Amino acid sequence: MLVRKFLQTGNLKIHAQLQHMDQVGTVRKINQLIAEVVKSLHALEGHNFNEQFLKRMSLEMFVAVMAALKAGKIAMHYFRSDKLQVSWKGEDDPLTIADTKAEDAILKTVHAYFPYHEFLGEETGVHDKHSSFKWVVDPIDGTNNYRQGIPDFGVSIALLKGDTPVLGVIFDPVHDDLYLAQAGKGAYLNYKPVHGPRYKGVSNLFIWGIRNKDEPWKSGLLEVLSVLPKHRMEDKNNTTIGMTDVIAGKADMTIKLSVKAWDVVAGDIIAREAGMGVTDCFGNVLKYDIHHVRNYNGFIMCNQKANREIMELISKKRQQIDGLQQVA
Length: 328
Prior knowledge:
The protein is an alpha+beta fold. It folds into 2 domains: 2-193, Fructose-1,6-Bisphosphatase, Chain A, domain 1 (2-Layer Sandwich); 203-320, D-Maltodextrin-Binding Protein, domain 2. The chain has helices spanning 2-9, 12-20, 24-43, 51-54, 59-78, 97-113, 143-147, 217-225, 239-247, 261-273, 304-317; strands at 86-90, 93-96, 118-121, 125-127, 133-141, 154-161, 164-172, 177-182, 187-189, 192-193, 203-210, 230-236, 253-256, 259-260, 276-279, 294-295, 299-303. Strands 4-3-5-6-7-8-9-10 form an 8-stranded mixed β-sheet, sandwiched between helices. It has a 5-stranded mixed β-sheet with strand order 12-11-13-17-15, sandwiched between helices. Helix 8 links the parallel strand 11 (203-210) and strand 12. It starts with a helix and ends in an 11-residue tail after the last helix.
């Protein structure tokens, strides 16, 4: 039972328990799994992989990082290449061969080590295993940028336990920036602690306003942000990199009026582990359901104290904001 539980959870405490029980064959198998992941990570050229750092985390983190780096390598192989094939899932909703291959690589990597875990990918949907552990993946967030050769896209991988994020990894392969967090262990950029933007009130904020495909997104954002005394908002066509810019302190805030789980869950846990405030546009903690991926209440990410003050401003003027209607 412990072996199966380890394969379901990757919990290294169970690994230690098995060692204590002196189950030599079982321990050997688990050590082989960990060694296999480490070897695979070292084999991925082009990234300064930090083995000692990851050993303080969990097997889930090893696997998530490996999957993200593999997907990033695929993305860069096709980026600005005449090999890139593009089809369309809908209006202004492209799908490239890189999206498909990257998600397939992530799925195979995850299920090689956690065959009992569920999986939700933007391109392939739900792979239901009736498990409380659920991986949520966007293989290339910012596909519109990607297909046009714009270096503004990223790989997003998260793990939920029930509906709670416990791990998040975002990889920006163009700049070789790896953001990661595990519940209770802090947030990191390239294996160094990161804490998001410092508090400077709610005036003069630089804000990324994230586009939505299916609504008059800009007028809605401007209406919501009208509660702020003074700010500068610029358009962003990529939720993942909009979030990492705030986590890294390059922007003060990012906002989007409706989101899908694979767009935001990895950035959510990374930002919260960095000590930031992440809520929907009504001040609630973000909720995740892999069978109902759209969140129509959007999200706001910024410094934690600033988030509370912005929510107070929105609450006072909510009745005057036509575009802000809470969805249960």
